[in-house]
Structures are given as structure tokens and as C-alpha cells.
Amino acid sequence: MDSLSDAQTRRVFLKLTAAGAITLATAGAAFANAADVETIIQKMTGGKKPTEGRITLDLPTIAENGLVVPLGFDVQSPMTESDYVKSVHIFAESNPNVQVADYTFTPLCPKAAIQVRMRLAQTQRVTALAIMSNGDAYIARKEVKVTIGGCGG
Amino acid sequence: MALTVTPRVRMPKTAKAGDVVEVKTLISHDMESGYRKDSTGKLIPRHIINKFTATFDGQEIFSVDWHPAISANPYQSFYVRVPKTGVFEFTWFDDNGTTYKAQQQVTVS
Fold this sequence. Notes:
The complex is a heterodimer.
Chain A: H1 2-27, H2 32-45, E1 51-52, E2 55-58, E3 62-63, E4 69-75, E5 85-92, E6 99-105, E7 112-118, E8 124-132, E9 137-146
Parallel strand pairs in A: 1-9, 3-9
Antiparallel strand pairs in A: 2-4, 4-7, 5-6, 5-8, 8-9
Chain B: E1 7-10, E2 14-15, E3 19-27, E4 49-56, E5 59-66, E6 75-82, E7 86-94, E8 99-108
Parallel strand pairs in B: 2-8
Antiparallel strand pairs in B: 1-3, 3-6, 4-5, 4-7, 7-8
């Protein structure tokens, strides 16, 4: 009997999550926080639309623990006085605070690459925005599935 | 809150001039996000390290502003070039105004 009711609960749970996933998908860009990210990006690039590419985002597809999600990036750049990566900004759109970290590089850095550990409150899209010394902006995004959330609770 | 905050840095102590080396840093800190509640339902105030910088002979080469989404005991790795024999200094800035420092002398052979 126990195993049967367990199976039923599981079925109900699966149904609920499936329904939830559909709502999330249809809501899509309606998330207030995703809009926050766009606003901040616009402000940082001065209204310029960032181009896709040049950033390699190193993130797990599935994070088992949202409290410690390894994040790495590598921005392609010669890193010389005249052409280098000025800053890289990381955003997590479904965190209570969408900003994760703001990196400042100088021509003294041989490459704009780092590794860090971050918190993700739930399954969401992580965005990296790179601003070059000449003002060009590049963007990369990756969806990370979180099985146990970080940030409070 | 951990009683002592210990910064740790791992990087080569010797290098050839112009070598690119990876610096790995770790510091023990709770990084209290300000979004957690205690057992009585009250918000625990934010207490994080909000900035990290790296300098070589006093000149800044790399810095990062951290927000509450950085994990506890923050690990940060990055790359530097060793132009000559000198001292790399790493500084962490706590929300409460404290700074934690670590130094590493690198000898060019």
C-alpha cells in the first residue's frame, strides 16, 4: 500500500512540475528580473546592443547544489594596451539580486579568464557581458538547471 | 561566522620573465547573503566580502566586485604575467570595513 501511495504522490508531483514548466515557458521574458538584467546591460553598454560570441562560458548544465556552482569564463582578446577586455559582468536573472560579480581587467592581465563559485537560487539563465577597451560589447548566455537552490530559504 | 578569516593564495614562487601564471585564491568567509532568515524568521543582515584586488609592486592588475551571489569561502582564480621579480599583493574588502591581505614574492630566474 505504501509503495502505491508513494507512486501516486510522485505522479501528482510530476504532473504539477510539468504544469509549472509550461507556465514558466510561456511566462518567458515576462520575468521582472530578466528585464532588470537587460536594463543593467543597456546602462553598461550605453544603449549598444551586445554581439554574441568571443566569450567561452564554463558552467555546468546541471548544478547539483545551487549554493556552489562553478563558473568560469574566457574572453578572446589580445590583451594589449590598445585592445583589451575592460570588464566582464555576470548576471543570474532569477536570483534575488541579479548581479553576481563585476570583473575589471587591465592590459597587465595576460588573459581575461577566471574561475569562481557562485550561488543560484533556482534553475535559470546565466549571462556574461564583456566590455572591450574600444567600447564593443559581447554577450554569452547559458541555462543552468539547479536541483537544490542556494540563496536563503 | 568563522572566528578567523584566513586568506590563502597559491601561485608559483619562481617564473621566467614574461611567464603567464595562474593564481588561485581562497578565503574563509560565510558570505552571508542578507536573504537568509534565522529560526525566528528575522532576516540575517548581509555580511560579505564585496571586493577583491590583485596588485603587482603596487600597481593594480585585476579586481572584482562581488555581490551576495558569490558562494561562501569564495574561491577565485585568474591569470597574471610576471614581468620581473616582485611582490604580488592580494586584498579582500569586508562589508564591515576590514581588509584581509596576502602577499606572494615571485622571483624571476
